[in-house]
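Repro:
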Amino acid sequence: MSLKRRSAMFVAAAAAVLVAMAPTAANAAPHTAAASAVVTPNSSVNGSISASEILSRAASWNGTPYSTTAYKYGPGGDIAYRTDCSGYVSMALHLSSSLTTVSLPSVVHSISKAGLQPGDLIGVLGAGTSGNAGHVLLFDSWADSGHTQYYAWEDSGDAGVHHLTMPYPYWPNTSGPSPSLYQPYRYNNESGSTGGGVPPWPNVVEGNTGTNVEAAQYLLDDHGASVATDGQFGADTLAATKAYQSAHGLGVDGQVGPQTWSSLIVQIQEGSSGDAVKAAQLELNKYGYGLSVDGQFGAGTESAARAFQSSHGLGVDGQIGPQTWETLVGD
């Protein structure tokens, strides 16, 4: 929920990174947020919201002190939000209450670095991220052509709400989570996304057939369900999906959409085995790799994963994580 860094530590880390990167004066933190001018609000609570409105709401709190106990109204005065990092992001997204880093995954889904757009989130979210174990901030735009730095809106313990230049994905050597744990996310109700690298998660619903249905069935079984992996989204798959959603605090609609896909997938790599591997092998075969769907992540599956990543502009590591899963399923 929060990231409490002392000012001295923040400044030291910032100086070390920025000196190493030798940025121009225009890229030095903090950054003037001219691109985030306030626009007329058009969203409703928990409704569809544009990236420009997310950033305008973020800018409206510029200079607000950080607190885990204080509350402040967002633009329009309809909801009071907690003034820590996750409460700040909840305000920017125009949610009905202040979520935490633990609960924010219920309203966002994973995206790739290549797919980052203004108004997206970068953070350490999910189970086990309460207190100093989690943090979240808002992506504004890239600060350099190499995508090693970006402009961000952040609410932090040392500076409150401010707009700054950040090394991707986050400062090293802070008292909070390791930078390697930070991942990009997009609000499920953000409107007007223009893509950029990774196709969106599909909605798989009752009556659908095909590879994505079968992959979803394998993933459900990997989490303890016992549905037939026949590629037919019938009553049994619907019931298993609803049961999974209920057990994991997701909206229970029986559809395998962005939230459910993001929750179902697991990181797999060479040496992994089981139904999640079968799902990945099945999806890779959709692109012509001709793998045996045996649930064993061996050299052949790793080679196919690397080839797929290379051909789709992803980081090539041979592991199937959130970005690779989303591209496999969504393409």
